[in-house]
Specification:
17% strand; 6-stranded parallel sheet; SIR2/SIRT2 'Small Domain'; elongated; Rossmann fold; 36% helix; 253 residues; binds adenosine-5-diphosphoribose; alpha/beta
Length: 253
């Protein structure tokens, strides 16, 4: 695999900046997982091309039509090939930075758990996780086995009299209309960092899309690695329009 010269030069820059940074915040989106076989949302073959799915992934639809919500949720986040996905070179390179002693905080919009699977230990899942679900009534938590075994997963907890709760579970994924998670912690991680790496995100969904501006206000260097142009490219300190896996593998080699 040979990168073209221009990208190669940019990657050399990134490698130098990574080597001279101690505290690194990494903001990732669906684009870091496409090389693991999980499609992103807004590219040409993105998940949101199916507008029915996009319209259904809301807190309101889950509460008003759970029997319609869950099959669409599974088509969006829990297809067998997504659940079986493995981390790629991009996830691996980020975990490698941590193994080299860098203070790395991953702020991910992804719900696939691949950063943790690759070995990253400080991962803020600001849009939650597709690997869990909770009962809205008794707060019992359920994992993938239960979610994949039922079309409409329900709570199986029994009360003292042996009556089964039976409520339809709510996925741990943040749906449109729900608050994001760990956001203050994400901002603190960026304030502390010498470098913010923005990988594989179109930066179109707030409030996450505003995080690079937080970094810039602190004069933290911002690097964007994305196949397509993002709304922050013009303000970033370094922009590399290439595949995340290749760029990060070379930059951390
Ligand atoms: N390498 C680098 N960039 C890539 C790659 C790759 N291999 N594959 C795709 N990309 C880029 C695309 O060009 C696109 O700009 O990743 C970006 C992914 O953008 P989106 O599909 O919008 O995904 P994301 O930014 O994560 O969406 C944010 O929107 O719908 C919500 O909750 C959902 O978390 C998601 C949020």
């Amino acid at each position: 695999m040979f990168m073209d010269t221009k990208v190669g030069t940019l990657v050399e820059n990134l490698r130098a900046w990574l080597a001279s940074s101690e505290r690194i915040a990494v903001l990732t989106g669906a684009g870091i997982s496409t090389e693991s076989g999980i499609p992103d949302f807004r590219s040409e073959h993105g998940v949101w091309q199916d507008e029915d799915l996009l319209a259904a992934m809301t807190d309101r639809h889950l509460r008003e039509a759970p029997d319609d919500f869950w099959p669409k949720y599974k088509r969006t986040f829990l297809r067998p090939e997504y659940v079986a996905a493995q981390p790629n070179d991009g996830h691996g390179a980020i975990a490698q930075l941590e193994r080299r002693g860098k203070d790395v905080t991953v702020i991910t919009q992804n719900v696939d758990g691949l950063h943790q699977l690759a070995g990253s230990t400080r991962v803020l899942e600001v849009h939650g996780s597709a690997r869990f679900a909770r009962c809205p009534r008794c707060r019992s938590e359920y994992g993938l086995d239960h979610l994949l075994a039922h079309d409409i997963p329900r709570c199986t907890r029994e009360d003292a009299k042996g009556a089964v709760c039976g409520a339809v579970l709510h996925p741990d994924t943040v749906l449109f209309g729900q608050p994001v998670r760990h956001f203050d912690e994400a901002i603190r991680a960026i304030h502390r960092s010498d470098l913010l790496l923005v990988i594989g995100t179109s930066l179109t969904v707030e409030p996450v899309a505003s995080l690079p501006e937080c970094a810039q206000r602190d004069r933290t260097r911002v690097v964007i690695v994305n196949l397509e142009i993002t709304s922050f490219d013009a303000r970033a300190d370094l922009v590399i329009h290439a595949k995340a896996g290749e760029v990060l593998r070379e930059a951390v080699r």
